[in-house]
């Protein structure tokens, strides 16, 4: 199954920016070759209206079959408001919250951005918690070049998957979750930290 990638304006504009061009262009080549699917929101499209013509044209190089439209609807709006009310994203960065909410609601495989405010959220467990409590999967957020690095083991991806599973387990039955923690690791209280993993 092809990877569905939500791309924001920074990734598209990155094709014309010397600092980011190498990896943005590589990603767009993969969209053109049908290797991945570009998920493009109406929010991204309205931002592109203000871009130089050379940036606006970039989307036209993606074959129709290999892009997917996404829309800022009530569901995404409500999720974006939660990110703000939970103080995960500052109110002044509302549009960042809206992009992330669209990607979450669309259940994309990954959101790709060069924007440091968005990238830094991949380390925020509170952000993951809001998604899980709201019934959405943990959203993987990456810089474009991270899509091309071949790893034997992706520690961040592993952690996000496990945390998503554990969060669901906790919200499904808190008592069972806490009992299991205590049963497996309660005996370690007061002991020095070591490699006590069962």
Describe the structure.
- The chain has 198 residues and is α/β, with parallel strands linked by helices.
- The protein is built from ten helices and five strands.
- It has helices at residues 9-13, 21-32, 42-48, 53-56, 74-85, 94-105, 116-119, 125-133, 155-172, 174-185, and strands at residues 3-7, 36-41, 67-70, 110-112, 141-142.
- It has a five-stranded parallel sheet with strand order 3-2-1-4-5, with helices on both faces.
- It is globular and about 65 Å long.
Short précis:
The protein has ten helices and five strands, in the order βααβααβααβααβαα.
Outline the fold blueprint.
Layout: E1 3-7, H1 9-13, H2 21-32, E2 36-41, H3 42-48, H4 53-56, E3 67-70, H5 74-85, H6 94-105, E4 110-112, H7 116-119, H8 125-133, E5 141-142, H9 155-172, H10 174-185
Parallel strand pairs: 1-2, 1-4, 2-3, 4-5
**Helices and strands: which structural class?**
alpha/beta
Query: How many strand segments?
Result: 5
How is the main sheet built? Answer: 5 strands, parallel
CATH superfamily of the largest domain: 5'-nuclease
The side-by-side strand order for the widest beta sheet comes to 3-2-1-4-5
Query: What top-tier CATH class of the largest domain fits best?
Result: Alpha Beta
Report helical residue fraction: 40-55%
**Distance between termini?**
34 Å
The fold-level CATH name of the largest domain is Rossmann fold
User: How many domains, as an integer?
Assistant: 2
Mean pLDDT: 87
Number of helices: 10
List low-pLDDT spans. Answer: none
- Spatial shape: globular
CATH architecture term of the largest domain: 3-Layer(aba) Sandwich
Instruction: Calculate Rg over CA atoms.
Output: 19 Å
Helix/strand order: EHHEHHEHHEHHEHH
- Classify the beta-strand content into a percent band: 5-15%
């Amino acid at each position: 199954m092809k990877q569905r990638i939500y791309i924001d304006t920074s990734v598209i504009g990155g094709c014309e920016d010397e600092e980011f061009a190498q990896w943005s262009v590589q990603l767009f080549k993969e969209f053109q070759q049908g290797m991945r699917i570009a998920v493009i929101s109406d929010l991204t499209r309205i931002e592109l209206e203000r871009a130089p013509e050379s940036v606006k044209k970039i989307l036209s190089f993606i074959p129709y079959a290999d892009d997917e439209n996404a829309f800022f609807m009530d569901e995404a709006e409500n999720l974006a408001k939660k990110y703000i009310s939970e103080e995960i994203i500052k109110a002044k960065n509302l549009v960042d919250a809206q992009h992330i909410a669209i990607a979450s609601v669309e259940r994309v495989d990954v959101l790709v951005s060069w924007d440091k405010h968005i990238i830094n959220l991949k380390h925020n467990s509170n952000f993951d918690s809001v998604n899980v409590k709201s019934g959405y999967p943990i959203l993987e957020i990456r810089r474009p070049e991270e899509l091309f690095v071949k790893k034997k083991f992706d520690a961040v991806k592993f952690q996000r998957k496990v945390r998503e599973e554990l969060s669901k387990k906790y919200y499904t039955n808190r008592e069972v979750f806490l009992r299991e923690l205590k049963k497996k690791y309660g005996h370690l209280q007061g002991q020095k930290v070591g490699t006590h993993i069962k």
